Amino acid sequence: MDLKRLKYFCSLAKIGNFTHTATHLGIAQPALSMAIKKLEDEVGLKLVNRAERQMTLTADGEVLLKHAQRILESVNQAELEIQELKGIETGTIQFGASSMLSSYYLPNVLAKFKQKYPKVRINLIEAGTASLQQMLLEGALDIALIRSDRPHDQIRCVNLFAEDMVALVPCNHPLSKQSSMKLADFCQQPLVLFREGYFLREAVSQYSKQQHIRLDIRFETNLIDLLKAMVVSEVGISTGLSRIVKPGDPVVTLPFEPKIPLYIGLGWKKNHYLSKASRAFVDFMQEHLPNEIERA
Hints:
Layout: H1 3-15, H2 18-25, H3 29-43, E1 48-49, E2 56-57, H4 59-85, E3 91-97, H5 99-104, H6 107-116, E4 120-126, H7 129-137, E5 143-147, E6 155-170, H8 183-186, E7 190-193, H9 199-210, E8 216-220, H10 224-232, E9 238-241, E10 251-255, E11 261-269, H11 276-295
Parallel strand pairs: 3-4, 3-5, 7-8
Antiparallel strand pairs: 1-2, 5-11, 6-9, 6-10, 6-11
């Protein structure tokens, strides 16, 4: 099979529209349509249901998609290994982390890594921990900071650190005088929360479902500064990690009782080839990130 046609087919399956896929690939739409038609002729099967706006895969197309994704991933891994055999020491790392970890835990460590490995390029993709794990499984990421307390049979993970979730409350809020916060009390308040898929939202959502509590969610955002601003403006209280509150912020952090720990580690897909750059990054993070957190 022609690898370029398989690549076009996978992109079309992901985007779901011929025009948008052609734009994404940087080719003309007729060229894309012809490539997909030739692929169908090659395999002797109808692969896509064509419609004016939205394209869908046939059952046969779904089967081919699974194999095509594996083929393209294997080709990419082979090219990477061959490059390294030639002695190419530069590299690109597709690295995933949540916005909170990226902003408050990684800047110094990433800067030190770049000083030591200036030719290595890091593409940082920000998403929730659940999405990051899925992106690892799909091969979209090489490495990601994910929850290390949820083992997955296709992901290898090394522990880095653990930190407790806290409640974020305005300084003048009646609850701000407490020494701790029960999750049951938290769920009874107007809330400002991260979106679904983030650990700091997940713990609250799971508890509310288990206890059949209807949450009063006044605002949702993944922007940390905006979330803090909504808390300060008394739109609602929120969850976070203590280091996002800076000295002088009119926000109080209250530990939950019992504690709600967040365990974070570096994860990568078990059968995904780790380049020299990625292996160096894993070793560097294991050595430096826990120490950076302890000093903070």
